[in-house]
Every structure is written in C-alpha cells, then in structure tokens.
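2024-03-11 09:14:02 INFO worker-7 job=invfold-0412 stage=load source=structure_tokens
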C-alpha cells in the first residue's frame, strides 16, 4: 500500500490522463444523450440545434478556459506528481458535483427526455473536444 502512495508520474502523463478522462466522460455522456434522443426521433432537428447551442456554451465559455487553466498548472509542476493531479481540488469537486447532479436528474426523472437528449449530446461533444485538446497539446510543449 505504501508503494502505491509513492507512485509518481511525469507532467506528460498528467496531460495524457486528463485527455483520456475528458474523452471517456464525453463518450459515456454521448451514449446517454443519443440513446435518449432515439426514444423520440421526431424531435431530432430541435435536439440537434439544442446540442449545437449547448456545445458552444460549454466548449467556448467553460471547458476551453478549464483546459488552459489545467495545462498551465500542469506545466508549472515538476516531474514527480500524483497520478490524479491533472485536476486541482476545485476541478475534482466540480466533476463530482456534475456527475452527482446528472445521475440524480436521470434517476428521479427531474427533466424530460428531450432535454436530456440535446443537453447531454452537446455537453459530450464539448467534453470530447476538450479532451482532444489535451492530447494535441502534447506536441506543443516538451514535457
């Protein structure tokens, strides 16, 4: 157990981990959004427009800024980091809150399926694109 606590990774590994965590989270949410949207295919055009709007809001106003914040923070670290240090404490709290909120909303059917379909689809594409930014960022900075 003590060996696991002493396990450390390089900055490059933190960037790679961040990218895959964002992409995997986005893929899981995309699956929920698309499957929910397929329950009523008659609304696909409205859901697609809504997904584009949600993508724009989350990617350009929230996630892109988080990407910059986290990559700068990681770039300033040394090469001996805890494997989960790709997020700071606030990032982990936000992620936990978002996951809890999403699970609660779906479990208790607090929002209609048409909303879940477009919101989750747009959110997931923003997450996947942000995760891809982390992975593309590897070429720009020598870690």
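2024-03-11 09:14:09 INFO worker-7 stage=emit residues=143
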């Amino acid at each position: 157990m003590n060996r696991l606590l002493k396990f450390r990774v390089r900055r490059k590994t933190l960037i790679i981990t961040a990218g895959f965590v964002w992409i995997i989270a986005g893929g899981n949410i995309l699956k929920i959004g698309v499957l929910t949207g397929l329950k009523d295919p008659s609304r696909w055009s409205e859901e697609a427009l809504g997904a584009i709007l949600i993508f724009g809001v989350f990617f350009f106003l929230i996630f892109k800024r988080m990407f910059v914040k986290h990559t700068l923070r990681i770039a300033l670290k040394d090469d001996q980091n805890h494997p989960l240090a790709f997020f700071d404490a606030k990032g982990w709290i936000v992620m936990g809150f978002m996951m809890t909120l999403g699970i609660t909303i779906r479990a208790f059917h607090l929002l209609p399926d048409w909303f879940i379909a477009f919101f989750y689809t747009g959110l997931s594409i923003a997450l996947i694109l942000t995760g891809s930014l982390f992975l593309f960022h590897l070429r720009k900075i020598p870690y």
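2024-03-11 09:14:09 INFO worker-7 stage=report msg="The mean pLDDT is 92."
2024-03-11 09:14:10 INFO worker-7 job finished
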